[in-house]
Amino acid sequence: MKDRTHLFFVALMAIGVGLAFLQEPGFGDDLTYWTQALEVHERGERAWERGSFHDLRWPVWGVCWALQQTIGFGVVSYYGVPLLYLTLGALLAFALGKRLLGTAAAGWAGAAAFLFHPLLDSICFRPMPDLSEGVLGAAVIATWWALMNTVLGQRALVWTIATGVLVYAAQANRVTGAFIVPVLIVNTLAFFPRRFLWLVGAGLVSMVCYAGEAAFYHSLFGDWLHHIHANMGNAGNKGTEPIPVWYLPFRFLDALWKGNPLAPAYSVLALIGIPQAWRRLGTFGRVVVLWFVVLYLAYSCAPQPMWPIRPLLRDADRFLAGLAVPMSLLAVCGLWWLWEKLNAWRPVRVPAAALGCIAVVALWAITTRNRFDLGFVPEYRAYLRSLPAGTRVFTHESMRAIALLCDADAVGRLLIDAPNRILLRSRDLEERAAQATEFWYARKLVWLTARKGLERGAPPKQPPLGSYFDTPEREWMLTRLLAKGETPDLIFYRRRTPETPAPQILGPDAPEFQGLLPAFPIEWHRQAGPMELSKKWPVPSAIRGKAVRFESIASSAQPEAFTVRLKFKRGADEVAEYLLKPYLHRDGGKEFFVFTIPGDTDHCDITLKFNRKAETVRIESFRAVFETPPD
Q1: Is the same domain home to 475 and 524?
Q2: What CATH code is carried by the domain that includes residue 622?
Q3: What pTM, to 2 d.p., does this model score?
Q4: What is the CA radius of gyration of the chain?
Q5: How many domains does the chain have?
Q6: 196-228: per-residue pLDDT in tens?
C-alpha cells in the first residue's frame, strides 16, 4: 500500500476518533478564541484589544475564522479546529513513527497512540492552543529532520523556510511554543553540528515573520513589542506561586501518570522505549528521546521573569499536550520491544491489520475520555427556534456568541442587544434591558471580569448590580435554565405580564428549610470551624420540579472561600448534582445561583467545603425565589 493511501485512512481514523469524543462547547478560553474569530469578522482591526494575550494566538482562532468564513457561524466552525489539528497530529505521528521503526504498522501505532493519548483528554474537542502546540511542534521536527538530511541546494532552502515559518507559528500559537527551539538547538549540536548554520537560517526566517507581526501590531497600538507586553499580562496568575527550585523538574511527573487508566501504560512503555530508541534506532531515535526530555524540562522548569522564582506554567495537565507526539512514539518503541520479546519466546502469527484493530478497540475500551455528548447545544438550539421572529433579547456578548454557536440562523431572526459587560448597574443598561422581552445570561461568563478583579483585590465592596440581577423576579419570569456539566450556567428569563403567576419567595426560617439553616448572620473562622459541613435536606414535595434562585449576602477576603455541592437523590439513587462556586467580596456583596429541583427527588445531600486559604466567611442573609417554568 502506498504512503498516500495509508495517510488517507489515518486521516479518516483521526476524524472518526475526534467525532466520537466531541463534548459540549466550553465557557473558557475555547469560547474566547471562537469569539475572537467572530469579532474579526464583525469588527475588523478593532477586534484586537491591547491587553488580550488570547488575540495573539491566530493559529487557533484563525482556523475558526476560516471556517466561519466558508461554512458560517455554528458548531462546525468550533469543532473543526480540534478535528483539523487531531488529523494533522495523527498524520505526523504516522510519518514519524514509520520513519522511526521503518514499517507502516509502526506508523499506524504512532497515530493511534497519539489520538488516544491521555494528555489530550480535556482538549481533543476544543479549539485550544495546547492541542495545536503539540502538532506544530511535531511539524517543526519533521521539517527540521528533512533540512538536516537534505543535500544542500534548492530543496534545503525550502526546508529552511518551512522550519522557520513553523517555529514562528508555534510561538504565535502560544509563548511556550518557542520551547521547540531549544529542542532543535540541542539536537542539531548533538547530531548535525556541521549544519548548524542552516538552523540559524531557519531562525532568521522566523525572525522575519515575527518582524512582520510586530509591524502589524505597531500599526494597531503603536507598540512594536505588543506581543511581549500582552503576554506579560498573564504573569503571576493563580497556580504559578513560588516553589522550591529543586522541585521544578518533578512537578509534572504525576500528570504523566494519572487522570486516565491509559496513562500508566503510556508512561511505562515510554520508559521502556527511551533506551531502546537511543541504542537501537539510530540518530532519529535519539532525536525523539531528546525531543521528549528537553521539551518536558522546558515545560516543567521554565521560570517567569520575576523573583522569587515562579514557574511559567501552572500545574494543569493540558499544558503538557505538546509531549503527546514524542511520548506516543516512545511508547510505540517500548511496545515494539515487548512484541519482539514475545515473538522470540513464542511466535504469534496475527495479521498486522488485525493487530491494529485490536489495539484501537483496546484503547477505546480502556480510555475514560468522555464519549460523544453535545450537552446543552440541542436544547439551546430548540429554544432559539421556538422564539418568534423579531423577539427582543437583552444579554451579554459571550451569551450571544454561545447562541450563534448553537444556531446562527435562528439568532439572525432575533433582535439581540448584547453589551460586553452587564453585571453592574448603569442607566444605559437599565434602559436597554427595559426594551427587551427576553433576558439571558451565562453565569460563569457574566461574572468573569468581576472574579478576576476579586483575585487582584478590588473592589472590596460589591458595586450595585443591575436590577435584572439584583431583583429579577420583579420584572422577569424564569423560563428555562441549562446546565453545563454539573454547573447550572445558562439562564433564560422572559418579561412578566399581568397573567404571569407570582413567584414564591422564602426566607431562611420558612418551613421548607426547617432545620437546614442556622440563625443569621453566620460566621465561620478557620481556627475554630470545620473545613467541611454536611446536611441532609428532605425536599418538600411542594417545591419539587420548580426552578429556584438561591441568594445570599456574604463576605470574605478570599474570593472563592467555599463551594456548595448539592446531590439530589431519590432513595439511594442520585438524580442530579450541582456544584455552586460563590464569588465573594471582602466587604460584602450578593451572590445568586439558579437551578432546577428535580421532580423525582426526595432529599438532597448538601456539602459545604471551605477553601484552605480562607480565614473567615460571614453570611448576612439568605432567600430563595421559586418559579414554575412555563415549559
Answers
A1: no
A2: 2.60.120.660
A3: 0.90
A4: 27
A5: 3
A6: 999 999 999 999 999 999 999 999 988 888 888
